UniProtKB/TrEMBL annotation, chain A:
Keywords: Cell membrane, Membrane, Transmembrane, Transmembrane helix, Transport. This is Citrate transporter-like domain-containing protein. It is a multi-pass membrane protein. Its main location: membrane. The lineage of its organism: Bacteria, Bacillati, Actinomycetota, Actinomycetes, Streptosporangiales. InterPro entries: Arsenical_pump_ArsB, Cit_transptr-like_dom, Diverse_Ion_Transporter.
From TrEMBL, chain B:
It comes from the Bacteria. This is CBS domain-containing protein. InterPro entries: CBS_dom (IPR000644), CBS_dom_sf (IPR046342). It comes from Actinomadura spongiicola. Residues 94-152 form the CBS domain. Keywords: CBS domain. It holds the Pfam family CBS.
Length: 427, 153
């Protein structure tokens, strides 16, 4: 009976999260509260068990990186790069598109996708306004590139942070297993974007001078601050990659990095803390408690057993289901709650497999969930943020306008991911 | 003394009014901010002057000081031209800040703390049904406080 109640609370909460009828933070707090009050979780254990409660490794990794990004945002680096790219392209649309996509795809593995879009999108709008061309194709291409690029590393996309923590996969594991296919998918996307966005490549050379009038050097007022930020960010990434040597959890590395960043840059702590998305952190906490309710009442175990029985020894079929299933579900729901819910189920599926095959299942899951984030306008937070910026700046992107491009790229990237998984882990 | 005793009538704007009109209303009325009302004369939001100015800044620049610095002087001089025919409602978005309002029976202390907490030099006064009954500006409140100095009994 408790399993039915837990499942009912979860399904209703998921419905409200997916449809965004109520603020998702309110939804998870109410659902998590109900789960706990009704005895569907392990009580106070939810604060101390990463598998039966809140995974603080994820929360503090996010918090640390939000602080780091909050400082880097103020340096003007991204505005500099985006304006520099626009001027280098001399207004030629395809070149401009590729350079902006390149900036977002390279930044996304190290900064969260939402921040990357928030930094690059306003510059894109200004450049497009000056060229008198619609900004929508450029914004959509940037989001798609950001979601693809973010899949490359442990810290690039929230689903990866959840998966990395649950499966015990390191920053280097992600670099070795995810980055190769991400690079392949991104290069393919760049090549195809010439055709995908072909109708948007007309421009008037008369307006190029207005783009050239932007002065990217003025975006950076404190080069010393920028250098310090980049050095600390570099050290954080080195800290992540030395996990097998130092045995320091990514969350600890991120928190120490955040502290060092605040110390060496001498920024106002209050200003930086305003940049932390506290709502997102609370959302994650509530989500973990909701999923813990499913685990505590045996729902996850039952689904995991059913999944394990269904796949038997056919792990390639399981990997195939994870790649395509995650891409489809991740496209229609926010891929963060989807990943948090599925992670314990994948853990159950991987239990009977040898370590290499188990890892293959996790990579299949990560690739599907990450690339599914491009599927629709609501599949990932960066998509929603970009659409919001587009609307506010007078370049509205409809759900279907985004989804038309997003679905195509999701199908392409998911197929490529499936071939990659098949060749690398099951051939 | 209560809010109703020092409230005055001030010009307001509606969500459908253009940004240019809103700035004109504030400038000509020498107001420290603007009250935005809906069709039923209920305050939708109360904007301090600086936030009215924010409406005139194109959204791409609003939260991006680095991008603002990179804009050349010729374009910077006419930044508000980019808004064209955008309305107050367009710029406020779907979730405008809650209006800074008090009931007509509010005391001066309530008014003062509300203004200070909300950093708003303008407060809308509403009647029991929530309709706009007047407004209190920072100047008006300070004058009332000065006149009520206890040492002058």
């Amino acid at each position: 009976m408790s399993a039915v109640v837990a499942l009912a609370i979860f399904v209703v909460a998921f419905f409200f999260i997916a449809t965004e009828r109520v603020d998702k933070v309110k939804v998870v707090l109410v659902a998590a509260g109900l789960m706990t009050v009704l005895g569907l979780t392990s009580g106070a254990e939810i604060f101390f068990s990463e598998h039966e409660g809140i995974d603080w490794n994820v929360i503090f990794l996010l918090l640390g990186m939000m602080v780091v990004v909050g400082v880097i945002k103020g340096t003007g680096l991204f505005e500099y790069l985006a304006i520099w790219a626009a001027k280098r392209s001399r207004g030629r649309p395809y070149r401009l598109l590729v350079m902006l996509m390149g900036i977002t795809a390279v930044a996304s593995p190290f900064l969260d996708n939402v921040t990357t879009i928030m930094l690059v999108a306003p510059v894109t709008v200004v450049v497009c306004n000056r060229l008198r061309i619609p900004a929508q194709p450029y914004l959509i291409a940037e989001v798609l590139a950001s979601n693809i690029g973010g899949a490359a590393t442990l810290i690039g996309d929230p689903p990866n942070i959840i998966i990395g923590s649950r499966a015990g996969l390191t920053f280097n594991d992600f670099l070795m297993h995810m980055t190769p296919i991400v690079v392949l998918v991104f290069v393919t996307f760049v090549v195809l974007s010439r055709w995908i966005f072909r109708k948007s490549f007309s421009y008037d050379e008369r307006y190029v001078d207005e783009v050239m009038a932007l002065d990217e050097r003025k975006a950076i007022t404190d080069p010393r601050l920028l250098v310090r930020c980049l050095v600390v960010l570099g050290l954080i990434i080195i800290g992540f990659s030395l996990h097998s040597v130092l045995h320091v959890e990514p969350s600890i590395v991120a928190l120490i990095g955040a502290g060092v960043m605040l110390l060496v840059t001498n920024v106002e702590v209050g200003d930086v803390l305003k940049e932390v998305e506290w709502g997102v952190l609370v959302f994650f906490m509530g989500l973990f408690v909701m999923v813990a309710g499913l685990g505590h009442t045996g729902v996850i175990e039952n689904i995991g057993t059913w999944a394990a029985d269904s796949i038997g020894d056919n792990y390639f079929a399981a990997a195939t289901s994870l790649v395509f299933g995650s891409a489809v579900l991740g496209a229609f729901f926010d891929n963060i709650p989807y990943t948090a819910t599925m992670a314990p189920i994948v853990e159950g599926m991987a239990e009977g497999a040898d370590p290499q095959t188990a890892d293959a299942l996790w990579w299949s899951f990560a690739l599907g969930a990450d690339f599914g984030g491009n599927g629709t306008a609501v599949a990932a937070s960066a998509n929603v943020v970009a659409i919001g910026i587009a609307a506010r700046t007078g370049h509205p992107i409809s759900f279907w306008q985004f989804t038309r491009y997003g679905i195509g790229i999701t199908v392409l990237s998911t197929l490529m991911a499936w071939v990659y998984v098949a060749l690398r882990y099951f051939s | 003394m209560q809010a109703r005793d020092i409230a005055v009538q001030v010009p307001t704007v509606a969500l459908g009014d253009s940004i240019a009109h809103a700035i004109q209303v504030m400038a000509l009325g020498r107001l420290p901010g603007l009250i935005v009302i809906d069709g039923e004369q209920r305050p939708r939001t109360v904007l301090p002057g600086t936030q009215v100015l924010r409406l005139a800044v194109p959204p791409a620049y609003q939260d991006d000081p680095a991008l603002t610095r990179a804009v050349d002087e010729a374009h910077a001089d006419v930044f508000w031209h980019e808004l064209r025919d955008r309305t107050v409602g367009d710029c406020l978005g779907a979730h405008p800040p809650r209006p800074t309002v008090v009931k007509a029976s509010a005391t001066l202390l309530e008014l003062a703390t509300l203004m200070a907490r909300q950093r708003s030099p303008l407060v809308a006064v509403v009647d029991d049904t929530g309709l706009l009954a007047g407004a209190i500006t920072l100047d008006r409140l300070l004058s009332a406080l000065a006149l009520a100095r206890p040492d002058e009994g």
